[in-house]
Amino acid sequence: MQLKGYESSVTLEPVRYELANPAGDEWDDNWLVIKGDVSAPDAEWQFAVPCLTTFEAKRISAWLRGVANGDVPVSVSGDAGVVPSLEFTEPNLAFSVGSYHGGLMSVRVHFALESMPVGQSSDERDQFWVGIAVTAADLESSANQWDKALSVFPDR
C-alpha cells in the first residue's frame, strides 16, 4: 500500500508472519512483519518489524475508507502532541488526520521505536510523523492495495 503526496510517501507491506509455523497461540501466531519505505523532505528510511497482528492490520483499510468519506475526525494537538485516531498494540505505527481541505485530506503516519529513522529520538512517539496530502480516490486505492496484500495472511 502506498500513500503518496507531493513531498512525502509511505509504503507499507505485510511480508510474512513473525512465526513461520503456528505455535498454537492465537495472539502470537498472527503477528505480521510489516515492511515500510518512507520518503519525506528531511529523511528517507526503511524498516521491517513485527508490529501488527492480522486482526489489527485489517483496521487500516477501514480507517482509510473512513477518512476518504470524511468520517474520521481531525486529530488535535495538545500537551501530549498529536493523538493518533488509529493505534495498535505495538506503538511502531499509528495514523491520524491532519486536515480536510477541499478535495484533499492530510493523513499522518506516526512512527516509533524500530520504525523510526536511525538516530531519531523515540521519547515522544506522537511527535514523529509524516504528513501526506491525498484525495479520497487515493485513499480508496490504498485501502484496496492493503486489503489485497493482507489476503495472503489470514488469521491463524
Q: Can you describe what's shown?
A:
Pfam families: WapI. The protein is of the alpha+beta class. The protein has a single domain, classed as Transcriptional Co-activator pc4, Chain A (Roll), CATH 2.30.31. Helices cover 19% and strands 39% of the residues. Strands 1-2-3-4 form a four-stranded antiparallel β-sheet. A three-stranded antiparallel β-sheet has the order 7-8-9. A hairpin with a 2-residue loop joins β7 (93-101) and β8. The radius of gyration is 15 Å and the shape is globular.
Q: How is the biggest beta sheet arranged? A: 4 strands, antiparallel
**Into how many domains do the coordinates divide?**
1
The low-confidence parts are none
End-to-end Cα distance: 22 Å
Order of helices and strands: EEEEHEEEEEH
